[in-house]
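Request: Give me one sample?
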Amino acid sequence: SSFFWSFSDDADGHSWNEYATTKPPYSPFFLSAAEVTISKHTEAIREGAEDFEYLTMLRRRVAGLQESDANYPGLSEAAAFLGASIAAVLQSLGATDVHWTSDKDRSAAERMRLAIAAAIDWLAAPAGESSTGDRPSIGRALPSVTVTGGTFVYDGQPHPARAAATGAYGVHVPGSFVFTYTPGGSAPPVYGGVYPFTARFTSSDPDYADARVDGTIVVIETTSASVNAASGSSAFGQAVTFGATVVAAAGSAPAGTVRFRLDGQPVAAAVTLNAGSASVTIASMTPGRHIISAEYGGGNGFTASTGSIEYTVVRATPIINWSMAAIIPYSTAFNATELDATANVPGTFVYTPPAGTVLSAGPQQLTATFVPADGTDYETATKTVTLMVTPATPAITVASATITYDGSPHPLAPEATGIHATPVGGSFAITYTPGGSSPPVDPGTYSATVTFRSSDGNYSDASATASIAITPAPLTARMTYPPDRATDVDLSIPIQWTSVLNVQAYYLYVGSARGAKDIVDSGEIVQTSYRVRNLPFGTVYARLWARVAGVWRYTDSSFSARPLVATLIYPLNGATDVDLSTPLQWRAIPNVQAYYLYVGSTPGARDLVDTGEMATTSYRVSSLPHGQPLYARLWTKVGGAWRYADTTFSVRSF
């Protein structure tokens, strides 16, 4: 038995279903010893409150869009539906009958709730999406569509999806379904695979809208895998391509990947099937019998499967390369130069005949036997070559020469040498053109033919040609270091030039412009070199004078040096009114080991600034005396030697 508390006294009522009482009660709760039960009356009140909330949400959304976007798709239909929805419920069966026991069409209210929710969802979408896709019409309830896909084992039959549409309180909503399968279109799946599908419902009930729902059907098809090889067998070190074919029960080509294994161990990464086939190349296998397997992992509607073959690998024959000359001169003893066979794997060679053998003239057979260090994977191999031994031709060494005229004859001095550069006995005959047998003296170009007559029976006669060019004595010197237009010149090497016959003096200018001597002014000198302590960055211009018979003549060149000494670029030499808020700065010197900055009140002094060794190219000075010359000496250490450049400046008065 149960009891309840209510706002009216009705002894004929009972728990929960107060509609069955003889008088209309107003009982929100029914109480028993174990629980509290909410009455249908209270549920109706709650639904009415929720209906009010739905209507309020829709009204606010409509009002907001009317202010912000009056052309929003569906807005006018939603506004009309807002007023009609209440009337539609009130016009339903028993809506105005206040008696609880009267028959009422409660599904009308539930349908309207669904329609209101659909309208709110419509108006909540971005404007570009509100009129696209599978969206219900405003004013119609959205039915609940359930679909049944599933997983099937391939049996050669189609497996269509099933669907049903229900409305308020689970009532059936009449209409029709159209299914679209991917792949397949309207045809239900038959073969192995995963088939997403869409069920589109067209309602024939004016109270319910059309709908759509997605699902998936999986058809499982068994597969078989097989393995094949590109060759029946191979040698160690040879790459072999193995193929795998995966076929489904219905003859289709499954998708997915295959993993190859060599004797149970994975070979590379899994390979993607292409039309049911995949392949892998194994670079090398040890000699012996191997099991090559291919494992298809299955998936997407296809079962896993494995195939394998047995494959034999034999020992490899090493490749011997021996390109010994087919003909060699007489008396050539074999050594590492001739016996230089190589193999593609480590091992040792045995030659027949052995090194040091002097062969007689005529055809000779030479054999190289190779014993591999790895006798497990490689066979022993041999290679034989035929060699013809001929009389040796001596080497005639005669150098062509270019000589500056000095009034003396200049004969050639040829030499004939044989094996191991040993002299070969014989005589030379030299013919000069012009001049015959007389060596050239005067300026000009002379060709020479050298003929050697061998007195050694093991060597043949030989000949050679050469030339002699005697040039007039130059009247100007030419710089040999650095050459014209050279860059990155190393100043640790002195400037050098050619000597001039009968020269009286040389004079070297180096300047910032052609013909200037603002950087180097050597004065008259007689040596053919001059050491420069430092040069500035950028291109400099050299003019080298030579005085012959009292007449000065010059040649010009230009180059850029690799400075050995850094020079202040702030302040510049001679600068006045220098602003000490800017640090003292200099350019970096290549391969520098350290810099060291002095600033003093006299040249070379460091009574004002003494930085010590440092690696940076700037130094900030907080204060210096003004109204007097200041002397900076910037030291640079390159190659372990210190060099310096001086700068004089004065600072701004405050």
Observations:
- The domain at 144-220 is CATH 2.60.40.10 (Immunoglobulin-like).
- Confidence is low (pLDDT under 50) at residues 1-20.
